[in-house]
Amino acid sequence: MLFSSLTFLFVFLPIVLITYYLVKPALRNSVLLFASLFFYAWGEPTYLIIMLATIVINYIGARCIEAFSSKKLALAGTIAVDLAFLGYFKYYNFFVENINAIFSSNIDFVEIALPIGISFYTFQSISYLVDVYRGDAKAQKDIYKLALYICLFPQLIAGPIVKYHDVEEQINDRNEDFDKFKQGVKRFIIGLSKKVLIANTLAAVVDKVYGMQVEFLTSSAAWLGAILYPLQLFFDFSGYSDMAIGLGLMFGFTFKENFNFPYIAKSITEFWRRWHISLSTWFKEYLYIPLGGNRKGPKRQLVNIGIVFFFTGMWHGASWNFVVWGMWHGLFNIIEKATGWNKDKESKGLTIVQHIYTLFVVMIGWILFRADSFSHAWKIIRRMFFIKPCDKSIYELGYYITFNTWIFLFIAIALSAPLFDRVPASIKENRVSNIAVNCALVALFALCISSLVSSSYNPFIYFRF
Amino acid sequence: MKTYIKEIVALTIGLICSIVVYNTQDPITTPIVISMDYQTQRQTDGVQIFYTEDSTQTYSFERYAVSEPVCGIQKVEFKLYIKELQHLRIDFGKNPGNTFIRNLKISGDREVVVNYDDITTNELSAYGYNDGIMGISSDGDDPFIAFNKPFNIKSKESVINRLIYANICLQLGACFVYLIILALGRIKGNENNKSLKFVFLCLSCALACYLASKVEIGEPIEKPIELSIDVQAETKAEIRAYYTSADGEPFNDEKSVATIVNPGSNKIKFELPIHNLYLLRLDFGSIPKTLKLDNIKIHGNSDFLINDFSFATKNDINKFETRETEITINSEGLDPWIAFLKPFNVKAATLIIPDSVIFFSLFLTLFALLFFISTLFCDKISGKRTEDIALTTIFLGTCIIPSFYLSDKTFSEKEKRNLEPFPTLIDSTSFNNNYTNQFDKWYSDHFPYRDELVTISNSILQSKDDAQNDDVMEGRDGFFFLKNDHVIENFANIPVMSDEDLIKAKDYLCLIDKWCKAKGKKFLLVICPNKATIYPEKVKHIKKINNDANSDAMRFLQIMNGTEVNTHFMKDEFLKHKNEKYLLYRKQDTHYTDIAAYYTYETIMNTMGKDLELECIPKEKILSFEFRDNGGGDLKGLMPGGMPQDTTTYIAYNTDGPNITFSNNDNHSILTNSNGSKRLYILGDSFTHRLEVFLALNFQFIETNRKDQYFLSDETLANIENNADALLFVIVERHLSLLSHQALYSKLQAFALQQGIK
Fold first, then answer.
1. Is any Cβ of chain B less than 8 angstroms from the Cβ of A431?
2. Domains of chain B, start order
3. Rg (CA), chain B
4. Structure pTM?
5. Which residues of B touch A45 (CB under 8 A)?
């Protein structure tokens, strides 16, 4: 079920909210757990078994870690099972394809559909196991509470990846109050608007550009796609995160932020401190630091960064595109680390160069990320830089982008920067501002509903990962 | 209890007010709607209906309605502002030929799909009901069908609209009483805030209800001003009413409506979709005629009978006589009209609250209730701002309410498709694995006011003058173009068909040609150009990268010219005529208009027709009916909504044409009443539809086969062999690539070999 589906908004959410607040506080976790399982089963009932198996395995695994003397073995064994699930469902055919290509073998592919959100809940499970292993958290004795952590529906299918030690207390005991609820509603509407009004509008253009044979693509159209896709992805994914955080607040949870205006970063290192924060901090805590981080010397640190970004790419999808995309970011992270580029240097001229450099690297990275194949990405990049001029293009720029989309594009660019952060607190906290903001949110919500009803274009990009 | 005594008193009195309103308000606010898909290939006058409101009444012109003139296939809708519909009769006008009715529905307090089990007919030579289509054939003066069983359908919203009025009254009444209580000085200190909230609440709620009733979402908000005239005509004539709504506004085509009158007595009605009628002009077409007009009435908020003609201005009128409410005119001029230049200032009649208001009103009422409860507890939620409570309430209310108002429609008129039925979890014996998807679709399909929301969304989010979706793109000057089916590649002259494909297509047609020759039949291939080929200047954002010689059609034509197949590509012929008065293609449709179909007919007559000794009929004799594309064409249908209306005037076929018997959509035959003796078989796509009307004037029998165009069955070939003197193959440019399909070639080759053709 998608947050931006009519079934979720008008059937599932009201029923769950009403039930949640009608039952006694002691039963609220049960309501949420049941709702989360139903939410997951709605998308693909069959894979509910895999999720339940993951819950049971991690429950037993964590208890073993706590109980056994050979904690490392119990940890490694349970993580191996988690990764085995992920590996089989997500990477099996990818490996077979590569093995067949390298060894000219003929191993059969297996028809497997990717269970929704498996990358997210597997990482959450690993977070739980490692936290227990490190002693940062106690093994959960109540399997229902663990189940709630792993499959809590607001962040189940597209994050943010919530670390166990961040929500352990909230699962056991949390306060629901009007302030949180109100903030949740506001955040949810903002997220929904980002997704439905901006990301979906830009997506229509991006799909046209990337769906076009490169022979018919002009340089300007290639640039258009290259500029719009990063914005689409940001508003899509951050919109989803906003909705997840908003829903969490409605049920009394406080999730950490997942985005912090990534496109204003001045380096790739900073970009990763602002983009998909829950993933990058997960990799930092559960891979980079265990690998030694920066404690084993500068050379080893660079290798560790490379490893982290290799797996970051892999996590996003079973395709060389994603691996290359991860390595592309890894490469610039390494260069920055090696050259000290990412150190703060306060010079206006340099700041502009830093912004341009970061946006350029990120934009090229997103082409690798979005293109159908590596060769497709390469063709688009060549077209952007006139390496191979286009003589077959019949489509002018107006074919791809209409006047309204230009407006949305400028809105998207404006909202990618923290403009509202610069508004003085006196104005923000002003009663009139609050009324105006609320009126705007009501209007946006109404527009989102009409757009959702009329639009058949609705899949979330991050479902794939 | 004591704390809220004022509110309780106020609401109680408000409730009494609302009960009074409920019981006195005129309950008839929403019409009973009769709708049907009406198809006729030559009839130009409107569909007429007679109805009765109770069983004691008989059919008369007092209970009569007539539609706009119908041409081709059109959706016809009647809105009857009556309490109850008992009996119905549909009249087809004089000499209607063949006519087909589909989806005849009556909507009131319930929706009835009308069946034809128990009907009385008059002057019908034939009629039949098959596969949801009622077909009638007649050459009589007064053909009709009357439904014998009473329908007993009542006006739907007689109760609910009263509730809406009552609701407004409730709020206003409560507010009024409360203000009186305040004025009496019974308010105390800290109650001010709460009291003001309550007043604000009531006023805003009433205002919101009122504003909601003004929002036009799908339905008209006011009953249109109606102009009715009793007309006595000698010949068939067109009467067009031009109207203005304000001082200084000129008469123009956009503000005009027309209808056709038949010889004899007619009662005509025009609906004028304006709020105020200022001036009126009646035009009588260019054909010489004598007309008697009587009882020229304007029905708005008051009825106005025109009985003073001293202020009427005339143009091209030879004779103009008046007697009380009657005028007689005779004209031979080109543009006869009379204009009533004294302002009428008749306003539209009673406000009609559309269906959508129910939703808004109930939503607002619930919102008001939640809001009020929230504000009462406001003090208990310390430091909370009312606007945040309001936002939360609206959010929750919006999420909860729609599920209670899901539509029960099974078919979407707008999308022309069946809506998803409610899924079953267990199909006979097995679990329905697709249940969740089906549920999502069902919910989305039945979401309240879905069509209206789609229209709103597109009106706001879709670019004006630059709309497009996956299938359609808007060009210049209101032209729409298809995007798929290789139309863009054809326009840009990018070859879609390889040389091998072209040869396959050629071989296929050569084989048909040979087969025809072997059987002694004439064969002609006609290729109709895409709209973009004729109006390239209207296409936006696409550029040609090759010259026209590289297009599939020109390459194919070049190959075909090297064969014995008689081939005509209509491009040059159409380009020759494109700058004439009438457009060759409908702006919001992929197809050509009747005038382009006529030029195609002319070409056919000048080639195949000559061989068959048939004579082309001059266009002046058969093309004279002007019409507007009110419903929009197939391209408009592919757009989600909010698209502009096409106001272009087109010209169409208008003569006593052939009778047409209809077997099904894709494969139908035409019987003509001409004196011709030749029989024609057409293998053609949708471009045949308008063309066959003209061909039917010359041929005694025509059978059109659309279904088998690319897959000739043995049965089809046998049919051509036995029932036709000539075979016409009609194909639009964008479908040429379909000809290269290997399967059809093999099929025909096998048949040809069997028939001994090498």
1. yes
2. 2-25+159-219+353-405 (no CATH), 28-158 (2.60.60), 221-350 (2.60.60), 411-448 (no CATH), 482-581+599-625+655-755 (no CATH)
3. 31
4. 0.65
5. 433, 436
